[in-house]
Amino acid sequence: MTTTQAPYPIGTPGTRWGNAEVAAWLARQTVKRSYEVDVLDAIERLRARFDVSEYGRVKYDGSDSYPLFAIKSRDWRDELPIVLVTGGVHGYETSGVHGALQFAELQASHYEGKANLVVAPCVSPWAYERIHRWNADAIDPNRSFRDDSPAQESAALMRLVAPFRDRVLVHVDLHETTDSDESEFRPALAARDGVAHAPGEVPDGFYLVDDSEHPQPAFQQAVIAAVAKVTHIAPADGQGEIIGSPAVAPGVIEYALKRLGLCAGITDATYKTTTEVYPDSPRATVEQCTAAQVAAVCAAIDFALTHRAIGT
């Protein structure tokens, strides 16, 4: 869908936000759901089967301190490949969080003895509770995975991954593209940066973001094929694009993951992808969106393990 947008209610058009504008934006954010109930309680139920470790804490003035947890294979073996699954880098993208948790609960046991799993289900808990894209500093964590990151959430995940980043075989980063991207988040971004907002089109369906610097087209298509059994794949628009990028294959676009500071670029994994589910589609349910994330993770691992075994 294509939308139009009135001037964003904070800031002066054409002028970047300063501290006053960020404070005004922050004052508008309210807690809408519970990280403790939705995420921490689910992680607690997994402790009997996994090693669960706190890898950091997120703390902002005037808010609670949020512990960050990783779920790891209990039978960790150094000779096995490592699989990294991340969700909730953008806190408002619900199926990424619940897809990561559901994968750990229902599917992770299938990979025992085949791979070491690391699942970080909710990278941005402050934003999860407020159903927002940014953190409390009005920073997008998914543009902040770089040295000296300005985002607490991104820096904490990078510290978690640092000891094994060169040994990761596959990394799946779980995301959503929603109608609120156009109604709120992209207009807010334009206002924050003092630029004009150009309305775009939200793709109806699931798609993937490959790494333009190290593309793996067969891997991406294997994931698309698996997800197509669960929910529909986003078509390209009239210009052959998905969210402004050329579709290089059905349901696949490419970004320069490391250069853009994206989460999917934090390791040297041979196989990496960012999933994008469309939860606002009349053709998909909440359950389908979560199931699509789980299907994507399983297909990614299956492809990577198979091709590693045959040396391709």
Automatic annotation (TrEMBL):
Coiled coil: none annotated. CDD domains: M14_REP34-like. InterPro entries: AstE_AspA_cat, Peptidase_M14. Residues 31-304 form the Peptidase M14 domain. Gene3D superfamilies: Zn peptidases (3.40.630.10). The keyword DNA-binding does not apply. The active site is at residue 276. Belongs to the peptidase M14 family. This is M14 family metallocarboxypeptidase.
